[in-house]
Write a structure and sequence with these properties.
This protein is an alpha+beta fold and about 200 residues long. The protein has 5 helices and 10 strands; from the N terminus they run ββααβββββββαααβ. The model has no long low-confidence stretch (mean pLDDT about 90).
Amino acid sequence: SDVGGDWFDFMENRDGAWLAIADAAGKGAEAAALGSVLLGALRAARRSGAGLEQAVRDMDRVVHEVGDADFFATGIVAHWHAPSGILRWLTCAHPPPLVAAPNGALAELATGLHPAFGRAERRQKYRAEERSLKGGERLVLYTDGISERRTATGGLFGVEGIGRAIEGAGPSAAATTRAIQRAVTDTSPLPLEDDAAVVVLAIT
């Protein structure tokens, strides 16, 4: 199937920029439908003026409402406030965010894990992480279709593969994204086995 459940979203508003990435369980039309419901919940929460924690709570609730126990998704929802240089984010059973230094050195952001969307308890407490980002740094959010991509030798592309791609990339978000996409494609002659998505925020 050509449709899948991975998506990313970026939206600027008066108080900064929202970034999100998600990976809906399964493949094909069912995963795409779940991904669409989840994205709709995020955008509705954002329009209503909700903060990160409420947006994630709304996203979890809507997955509970539309699906059964096999319906779930992982993801990260983040907010970047450029005037203060502060990034806030919530990770829901998803690979942690990465930050690339100006020289390309890559680090995983330590993050508290919350349950996947659709798997949280009714009284689940959400607490956003917070970190300052400096000029020249790049934030990278990705789905496991990137990190778990099999290489030509049978290994995993992994975070190390993302790091190698970034080392040779230009500093812009577009150049960094293209470099990662190219490296993932070139690492094996075989087609991708899983949906894959990546979003990059370059701090200027």
